[in-house]
Amino acid sequence: MSVILVTGSYDHEIRFWEAWSGICSRTISRTGETGQVNRLAISPDKRLLAAAIHKKVNIYEIASPSNEPLVSFESHTMNVSAVAFHSEGKWLVTASEDGTIKIWDLRTSTLHRTYDNGAPVNDVIVHPNQGELISCDQAGSIKQWDLTDNICSHELTPAGDVPIRSVSLAADGTCLVAGNNKGQCYVWKVNDENSNLPRFQAVTRFQAHSKYLTRCLLSPDARYLATCSADTSVKIWLIGPNYDFRLDRVLVGHQRWVWDCAFSADSAYLVTASSDHTARLWEMASGETVRQYNGHHKAAVCCALHDGAS
């Protein structure tokens, strides 16, 4: 499949969609299993789907019609809040409300390493250099984890103890954005670790939403920042050459909280998932909904899109 679009919901279902027709092509129904689907990630080679389901992570083979996972990772003791693949698909990182970040070896299906974050983790991403992780947590911290030295090498607390909900890093690793529970976004320029400048240089902050922010995401081309919120909107911010963020447009259409979003590889489209049970495909140029995905019976809280080269 050239385009893989997946959504997850509190109805315990994972749905695969034909992006342009809006038809649901496959449903993974986890009959008898408890726990909602919290987060989704597609492996870079488009072969695997990682689904964070309550306290565990199921790995599904995308090309297989089977509802059964290839493997389940079950070491977390509370809700798994984030999942992300290594660029070559060798390992998977997960984060949880249990305060830990775990790295799983996908070749041996074993737990490779655990980091104690000290507070419930809300999000974790893999640095483009594949040697560092960046996490954010309920205590208001953003931490960088060095995978070589096995340490937390940097910590930021931009708004005291206000929980940081989401973090996003530009594809070239030079810009970090974080969003918090009060709808504020914070921006840092990320300097080379060998430079004489601080690794994280605060650039700006702005009020993205008046209500709870659920996700912030930089586009692959680093031209846009998308922010999702409890206010039912998605806002698109244009990023200037000096890291200045200007509101470009507000995507209006969802009826309830918007929980997650994913850009297309060319940054021309955005997928969103909402508590109104739907997901939407937006055209960035016009700000219009070009497709709505209907089928979930409860809140759609996560989505994943992979339409790039495998």
UniProtKB/TrEMBL annotation:
WD repeats: 1-18, 73-114, 206-237, 251-292
Keyword Magnesium on entry: no
Name of a matching Pfam family: WD40
Subcellular location: Cytoplasm
GO CC list: cytoplasm; TORC1 complex; TORC2 complex
Keyword Cytoplasm: yes
Keywords: Cytoplasm, Repeat, WD repeat
InterPro entries: MLST8 (IPR037588), WD40/YVTN_repeat-like_dom_sf (IPR015943), WD40_PAC1 (IPR020472), WD40_repeat_CS (IPR019775), WD40_repeat_dom_sf (IPR036322), WD40_rpt (IPR001680)
GO biological process terms, semicolon-separated: positive regulation of phosphatidylinositol 3-kinase/protein kinase B signal transduction; regulation of actin cytoskeleton organization; regulation of cellular component size; TORC2 signaling
Family named by the database record: Belongs to the WD repeat LST8 family.
PANTHER family: G BETA-LIKE PROTEIN GBL, TARGET OF RAPAMYCIN COMPLEX SUBUNIT LST8
Name under which the protein is recorded: Protein LST8 homolog
Organism: Ephemerocybe angulata
Lineage, broadest ranks: Eukaryota, Fungi, Dikarya, Basidiomycota, Agaricomycotina
